[in-house]
From TrEMBL, chains A, B, C, D, E:
GO cellular component terms, A-Z: carboxysome
Primary site of residence: other
Source superkingdom: Bacteria
UniProt keywords, alphabetically: Bacterial microcompartment, Carboxysome
PROSITE patterns, alphabetized: BMV (PS51932)
Annotated compartments: Carboxysome
Record protein name field: Ethanolamine utilization protein EutN
Length: 87, 87, 87, 87, 87
């Protein structure tokens, strides 16, 4: 997984029907040599703009959604506690 | 997923029969540290040259095509709204 | 797999229920051209901060947990012996 | 997928039996920020040295071979038409 | 796949039981823009330190081991012939 900061919500009116109702957000990897890399992630745990989150990628993202047919490759799996300074 | 801009259609007369009828396009990742990375993506939602799109990669691309036997690893899942400025 | 050093534990109170009880740690890849890249990994073999470990990524991480439904994409599979100097 | 140019055939007398009879070639990604990255790809559509090809990676490569047990992670899926200038 | 040179054996006394008896080696990608990137790979075809090998990654590595439950993401699939100069 990677640590990323949620930057904004992203809107796509024309999209796969399988994405209907899914919240998609722009995330930016923070820390380490991939710092600044941007991803689009889906969120089902209520994370918001500005939150530092843990993002899982690849086929694991579909496990987070509990639906192997949704075409996403990145999902928020946790919101990092504010007291967690090293992240 | 990543944000990319569709640059052109790509033509391959000799190809896997499983790709027959699939539209393949050159996309360029925009924003973040992977800015400028090129991908070939397939599109089944009617995106066109110049559109900013959301691209899913890996096994998720086959979920977009709803056919697990097609040998693609990247697919357009949504067209980003023009009003979406931060993308 | 990659060689990484475990830097710290990471805490996320709000997270997927499937991650409950799993230890998540910040790891930093050491050596080679990816030196300094950060990952979040899960550990089920009792590794600790400061340990140099072998991390497997992608769908293989779920094999380490023996549960294909957990949404993780990186896991510690071994702790490198201290006598192993080239790692 | 990525655009790559086929540079040479690669020979490995000692190899997995599952690779017997498969043509393996050195390919170099062309264009974009990954320009110059080298991959070993398998080819089953008759591509040759110098051809510009579309390469699929990951589990999709096994779909190209129509055999999920072959341990390859990259395969040529199409030969780009010479008239295709932007590729 | 990628071309890599085997640099050393790596030892991990504490590890997943599923890795017992598997030879793990440090490999370094050679050639192209990923030159110098380090991987830990498993080898079941008798490759040795100094050999130039073809490494498959991701779920394909488990096909090399013929066991989908082993948590590895990279495996040697062939030893490149010494006469193969362009590799």
């Amino acid at each position: 997984m990677v640590i990323a900061k949620l930057m904004d919500t992203i809107w796509a009116t024309r999209k796969s029907e399988k994405l209907n109702g899914l919240k998609l957000m722009i995330a930016e990897i923070s820390g380490g040599s991939r710092d600044g890399e941007r991803l689009i992630v889906c969120d089902v745990i209520g994370a918001g703009i500005g939150d530092r989150v843990i993002v899982t990628t690849g086929s694991a993202a579909r496990r987070m959604l509990e639906d192997d047919l949704i075409p996403v490759d990145a999902a928020v799996v946790g919101i990092i506690d504010e007291s967690c300074e090293s992240a």
